[in-house]
C-alpha cells in the first residue's frame, strides 16, 4: 500500500463521511494489483535497457578519455561521439520512463532503472564531451 493511499484511507476514517470515503475506495479499487519483485514488467524492461545503454556510454567514454595517447584520433573521436550519443539516449529514455511512472520503487514501473539511466547518461555525456574536446584539441 502506498503512502498516498494510506493517508487517504486515514483521512477518510477520521472524517467518517461516506461521501468522502467513496472516492478513496474507488481510487484503491482502480489501482492495479501489486507486482512480484522478480516479474519483468514493461516499465522495468525500458528502465533497465536505458540504464544499460547509458552504462555502455560510460564505459566507451571512459575508454576514450583514458586511452587517448594510444588510440588513433579518428577512433577516439568516434568513441567520444558514441559515448555522447549513448549518454543522451539513456538520459532521454530514463527521464521519459520516470515521467510516466505512477509509483515509486518496487511498483514495477522501472523507476530505479530510469533514475540509474538518468545519472549514468549524464556521466556518459560528460565523458563523451570531454573526450570529444580533447580529440579536437590534439587533432
Helix content: over 70%
Beta-sheet strand percentage? under 5%
* Cα end-to-end separation: 58 Å
Task: Report the mean per-residue pLDDT as an integer.
Answer: 75
Largest beta-sheet details: none
Question: What is the topology?
Answer:
Blueprint lengths: L2 H13 L2 H13 L11 H25 L6 H28 L10 H28 L1
Helix pairs in contact: 1-2, 3-4, 3-5, 4-5
Concise summary:
This protein has 139 residues and is mostly helical. It is 77% helix and 0% strand. It folds into two domains: 1-31; 39-138.
Structural account:
It is a single chain. By secondary structure, the protein is mainly α. The chain has 2 domains: 1-31; 39-138. It is 77% helix and 0% strand. Helix 3 (42-66) packs parallel to helix 5. The radius of gyration is 22 Å and the shape is elongated.
Question: Key terms for this structure?
Answer:
139 residues, 2 domains, elongated, mainly alpha, 5 helices, 0% strand
